[in-house]
Structures are given as structure tokens and as C-alpha cells.
Amino acid sequence: MGHIILxxxxxxxxxxxxxxxxxxxxxxxxxxxxxxxxxPNGAGKSTLxxxxxxxxxxxxxTILIDNAPMRYDRASLRTIRKRVGFxxxxxxxxxxxxxxxxxxxxxxxNLGFSDREVKDAVENALRLVGLSGFDRRPPHQxxxxxxxxxxxAGVLAMDPDILxxxxxxxxxDPSGSEDIMELLDxxxxxxxxxxxxxxxxxxxxxxxxxxxxxxxxxxxxxDVPDVAFGDPELVRKARLSMPTLLxxxxxxxxxxxxxxxxxxxxxxxxxxxxxxxxxxxxCYTEPGSITLFDVDAPSEVDLHAWRASNQEVPxxxxxxxxxxxASDMLISLDFTYxxxxxxxxxxxxxxxxxxxxxxxxxxxxxxxxxxxxxxNRVTIQVTMLTxxxxxxxxxx
Amino acid sequence: MYExxxxxxxxxxxxxxxxxxxxxxxxxxxxxxxxxxATCVAPLFIAIALSLALLILARxxxxxxxxxxxxxxxxxxxxxxxxxxxxxxxxxxxxxxxxSWLSLSFTREGINEGIFxxxxxxxxxxxxxFIALTTPMTDLFAVMRRARFPEEVLDLAMxxxxxxxxxxxxxxxxxxxxxxxxxxxTIRESVHSYAMLCGAVFIASWESGEDLVRAMxxxxxxxxxxxxxxxxxxxxxxxxxxxCFLMISGILxxxxxxxxxx
Lengths: 396, 262
What we know:
The complex is a heterodimer.
Chain A: E1 4-14, E2 20-30, E3 34-38, H1 45-52, E4 60-65, E5 68-69, H2 74-83, E6 84-87, H3 91-94, H4 100-110, H5 115-128, H6 144-156, E7 162-166, H7 174-189, E8 193-198, H8 201-207, E9 210-215, E10 218-223, H9 225-228, H10 232-237, H11 244-254, H12 267-278, E11 290-294, H13 303-309, E12 315-318, H14 320-328, H15 339-348, E13 353-357, H16 362-376, E14 382-384, H17 387-392
Parallel strand pairs in A: 3-8, 3-9, 6-7, 7-8, 11-13, 11-14, 12-13
Antiparallel strand pairs in A: 1-2, 1-4, 4-5, 9-10
Helix pairs in contact in A: 4-5, 4-6, 5-6
Chain B: H1 6-12, H2 20-36, H3 41-57, H4 62-86, E1 92-99, E2 102-107, H5 108-134, H6 137-146, H7 151-180, H8 187-217, H9 236-255
Antiparallel strand pairs in B: 1-2
């Protein structure tokens, strides 16, 4: 984990003629962390987030970025807002220009980029969020999820180090929410620090590195998610509900099953917990293998031929470009969210799977699978799809 | 309440990707030639050619097109009948003088004049609709910037464009909420509901204005607004087609100066 990139020291804020919204908060965020602020309506989440890029100035206390106290003159604010990208809850409120291109180009243009640089930044940002080719579309013709992506692209085009999202999944359908969370993961993987506010515990629980529970303008609890959400008393106080998996774990524990120390964060973890508790071995048969296909690497592999000889193999997509690639190639994906876990689950059942993957995510798959294998003493093969394996690896 | 907007049609029409200047040349050239023409032949040709282009090339729905066209035509019918009745002339077919200062008549000159004005309206309307239905506002902004429109006016226009759609969607929401609770049942209630609708939308637009400032601030607004790059280059085929169209219309204008209908 990196150095402290953002810190709040005893900040307080009162809205004009209103109640005190922030009543003394101190915390820090490290570079490359995924932090979620969780709390009921009116807990002060949005107010707090608006302080991170200097939109609201605390009445007292200090916010530090890279250990330097935030300053509120025009020039400093510009620097801060370039470093801290803020994505509002309602994309309609954030999108200001008549076309997607112009909106994404808004930040870069105002930062004084040249025309060429603006164009590159926009293209890059739109590619990252999977909206290439949407340049000339007017925002009012886009779907909710697409608008959200435009809003995110508008912020990404300024290349911030810290990304702040106010309720990133509000108003989106479940699959849209999963896509956005997956995108946040991808951005984090590329080195961005991501801070979100949310009510959606089920999404925040497996996603976050750290959760901060807020109530009435104060921090109620700040810890890794399984601890922060694991205390029924606190969760009730914060008007939230315990994540289903965590609740299930607690209930099993109460019934006297011997459970591993680490609490489950995903279905894979939970299955693992149960297998350990009831059968004491993770795998039913010889584990299957996971094959990766890097959509960014130039390759000679004929994916269609591979699919023809491996028709039963389910396919997952990781990363926006991989999903774009799948839709371009008319491949329907079986998993788009929590892909690694789902593929490990398949492998444990003795089945193979293929992941279409964006280059930057490959390492993550290896790390996750290795970690799982080490913990559970199984061996799951992860291989890249190469021309050689194309013909040789077609197993029954 | 939520009708299909010209802008929405323009965003998806079949000529969307054709270079903006080519389309503007056809539309503006059409209007200009309608005005230059001294008879009804050229305007009628322009009306037919551009309407066919809209229906076939731009794939505009016939029903929609007729619906849009009907409004100006009704207006034209009324004004043209007034012109015909009031215009005097030498060859009188019928006349009536109900009051000492008012005489109504059908004359050859009057009818010719009426047909001429009517054809001009048809030609002008189809040329204008040609621009409106094939060239979305977003593309026109780029042209306006190129034509050195003042930055302030243009930036404002772009923000207004975006805001119109936001306010409209809000308007639709409030209106529906009112209708669901029988807001427009009686005239009295309608007036009341309408006033409330205006108030609600005003407040909403005020708030969205504040959000706009916040959104711009948080993305380092420094007085600059990005412009959309212009669309595809001028394609020879479409430019040639437009040139042919304008030349035929021009020749018609020049050669039909003395032809009259009656």
C-alpha cells in the first residue's frame, strides 16, 4: 500500500442556516486504495466528498493532499481538481455539453491542452469506459448507464490520481451497477485511488479495501469491510443491513461449525468456507483450467476456431476493452462481473473456462488464482491462449 | 406530451454523416433560389427535389414529414387566399364589393401572384426542413464557430441546447405526476396545475443552473468550451449531387422568368 494521498484532520462543516453536516472527522486514504463511505441518507457522505476537490471548504480542520494542506486560491484549486476527479451522483447534472465528445473534452480544453492532446485524451477516456464511437451523440439520447460512463470519461480525460464517486451505482440496473463497479476495479488496477459513497452494501462489501461507516456527520467505524460490516450493532445503528454472505457466516459460526479465520467476501469464499466446514477439501475432482485471451496483445490466435473446438467452455470478460471486443466479435459472455471467482468456482467443479481479458488485468488473475491455490492447496492451471495451445489444448 | 423532436430525427437521419457544408449549401441555396425566382416553377422543383431527398435519402418517415409540413401549409393557405382576394388586376373573373373601401376579386394577376407565393412557401419550407431534419444542432455549432460567431453567444447556445432537454424531461415528469392525480380535469384546475408546473420547472432549472456551475467548476472551467470537430470530409458524390441540384434550379430560375400559370 502506498503513501497517504488524502487526509482529513478534524474537519467540521455547517451549511448556511442548516444543521452541522460534518461534525469532526479525521481519516486518511492511501495511494491505490479502494475506500467506500457508507451511511444512511443525511450522514454527510456527499458533503464530505465535495470537500475532497475543494468544492466545499470546511469551517474548521484541514484537508491534506499528499501531506500538503489544501489551499483555496484559484490556482491551487485548479491543481487540486485536476488531481481529484469528482463524479456526481446524477450524470445529467454533470454533463454540460451538447455532445459526448465536447463533454469529455471540457476538462482537457480548460486545462489548456492542445487540440491534438484534447483529441487523444478524449479518445483514450472514451475507450477506457467502453464508449468509443459515441463522440457525436447528444447526451439526452443515451441510457442511464451510458450517461454515467460519459460523466466518468469526462473526469478520466483529466487524468486524475484520485477518483471520487458519489453513489456510482444509483439509478442503474443490477448489471449496469456491476459493470460500473468492475470499471472502478479496472481503474484502480491502473493505479488510481478510488473513493466511493454508497448505500449498496452488497456491492461495497466485496469491492472495498476499507469501509468507513458514517452517521450524523461523524465516523462510526473505519476498518476492513468484514470488520466494519461485521458488527450487527453498528450496522443497525448506521441504518444499514449486514451483507448476506457475512450474515450467513455468522449464523454458521453460531451453530458451532469450525470456520476459517478469514470471513467470506464473495460466493467463492463462502463455498470454500462450507467445503472446509463440511468436507474438509475444496475440490471435487481434478480441477479444471483457466485460459486467458489478452485482447490487447497482437496475436495470431483464431478465437473462433478455438471456440468451435471448445463449445462447452464458458467465457468471461474482464475489462472494458475485453467486453467491447466480445461484442465486436459477437461473442456472448457468460460472466462479466466477479469473473475470476466464477472461473475458479468452475475450475473447482472440474470445468475449464476462458477469460477475454484486458492486458492490464492479466496479473490480477494470476495473483488471485495463486493466492487461492496456496490457501487451499489445489492447483489450477492458468494459461495464455497462444497459437500453439490453440490446436493442442482442445480437451474433451 | 413527449413528442418526437426535430433534433432527435436529425440525429438519426440517413444523411447524418454527409458533410455539414454540403447539406447547408443545398438548403440555403434552395432558399436563396426560391427568393430569386420570379415564377412558381423553380420553387416547386426545389420543393419536390428536397422533399424526395428527405424521404428517400434521409429516410424520414412520411407520416412525420407530412405532419411537420402541414402547419406552415395551413398558414400559407390562409395568407395566399387573402393575397388572391385582395390583389387587383386587369383580367377580372369575379368581384364583389361588400364595403366602400373593401373589394374582393379573383383576377388573373391575383391568382398568378397567389400561386407564386404559395410555391415559394413550399420551396422555402422544404429547404428549411431539409436543413433542420438532416443537420443536427450539434453539427451547426461547429459551423457557427467556423463562421466566427462570438464565443460568448456560442457557448451560451450550447449550454442552452443541453439545458433544454434537461428541463423538458423534468417538465414531462411533473406534468405526468399532475395528470396521474387528475391535475387537468377542469379548466380551473388546469390553470392552477399549469401555474404549478411552471413554478416547479422554474425552480428545477434554477437548481440545475447551480449544478451546472458546480459541474463546470469541478472540471477546472477557465472560460473555454470544447468544440466538436467537424464531420466527415466533403465527399465528391454528395457535393456533385448538390451542385447538380443547384444548377438545375438555377437554370429553371433563369429560363422560366416569363411563364405564368394562367
